[in-house]
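ugh ok so i messed up the first submission bc i forgot one of the chains. this is the corrected input, ALL of the components this time, i swear. 436 residues overall. if the numbers dont match what u have on ur side tell me asap before i send this to the collaborators (the ones from the other lab, u know who)
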Amino acid sequence: MADKREHILVAAEDLFAEKGFDGTSVRDIAQQAGVNLAMISYYFGSKEKLLESLLEFRAGYAYGILEELNKDESLSPWDKIDRLVDFYVDRILNNLRFHNIMYQESSTRSVEIRNKAKDIKLRNLEQISKIITDGQQKGLFRQVDIPLTVGTIMGTISSYTLSKFYTCAILALNEDVNDEQYRQRLSPRLKAHLRQLLRAHLDIRNDGLPMTEDRKGL
Amino acid sequence: MADKREHILVAAEDLFAEKGFDGTSVRDIAQQAGVNLAMISYYFGSKEKLLESLLEFRAGYAYGILEELNKDESLSPWDKIDRLVDFYVDRILNNLRFHNIMYQESSTRSVEIRNKAKDIKLRNLEQISKIITDGQQKGLFRQVDIPLTVGTIMGTISSYTLSKFYTCAILALNEDVNDEQYRQRLSPRLKAHLRQLLRAHLDIRNDGLPMTEDRKGL
DNA sequence: GTTTAATTCAAACGTTTGTTTAATTTTGTG
DNA sequence: CACAAAATTAAACAAACGTTTGAATTAAAC
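and heres the new structure output, hopefully the right one now
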């Protein structure tokens, strides 16, 4: 039973991410999961409740990782930022499906779903906040807008995972490249960019720079 | 005639952005536009072609602004970055509707639509690239990954415009705040964050920093 | 004013949608 | 084995979907 339920969740995850929630029919899901159409109502009640269950099903994972990362006292705040970047790039690239649902699809749905998505994001934000404030207390990081900084990380990755056509053009890749190659080209570039970006953004030494014109000529 | 066509486009823009492409019926659009259902097929051929026309209808605007900004020789590269941030934050916040379609919705549609969206983004990227390379040639900006930097700008804004529930929680706003207040709270914060972020990210003086551990003691 | 073309409309088209039904099979328990 | 509960099924449901039709109306051209 738990087996079938999970089959349905995985199938739904793939299809929702590929064709959107409205673009996916419960018949598509049933077929991909290899179960009868009626099983979806039987297990989940409705298509919307299926999406809700899907959010719960996947939500715990990222939080667990972030919690562990926070507890690890052998890592400096800078190390943690690097790990954070690696984790999110890898995770989003390998779970494009779920991430698309979580970060775009769920915002146009029922109140229950929007609230669930909100709570998951807030819980994750909480963990990342701890990493940054820790770096600030240790005198390594400067004062930044933490929630927006998190938005920058997620948003940068999303902007390159949401539309393969555009990304392929940027990477000078053929549009029908296989997913594995696609990830292998995009991943290091995203990580390098985010690391460079966050180092400059967070470094305490870059604080208060009155900025430029110290190089008047042209 | 051009009048009705435009009415339909505007109605479609609002509804697509609010409920997604699949979530919006042509009947919804016809009603909101105050035209007969059949007029949509009459003018546009199909619902997908309507989306295509919508992209064309709105695409030119941003490009024109960016082109002008580039030509203006009275502005320093830093000024241009500031203007760029202001422009995109304002534009996206005031055209949430269109932006959502352009940057998320169109990626799951037909080849024609995905290509059209891609071309529009590439043309805009081209203009922003000029601003940054100009700053580099003038010795103000360091070497950065330009396309990903543009992705960071767009992505940061998107991550806070795609889900109002989450954003309201961050801004400590009531969820049913009116759109005007919502914008007025979000806009300055986004602008300040992006300006701070890009100053650190682009500043030539922040280049090559071997980073931290120059402050060993905790 | 007549004729031709462009526009608008209500109605209906055939599909597809999410969900329910009621009968059947499988499973677990005493 | 028997019996009750759970799981599974094919079929049917009404509702909504995008699109087409063909007649009615308006506008333009001569």
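quick check: Residues 213-218 of chain A have pLDDT under 50 and may be disordered. that seems consistent at least. Residues 111-137 of chain A form the longest helix (27 residues).
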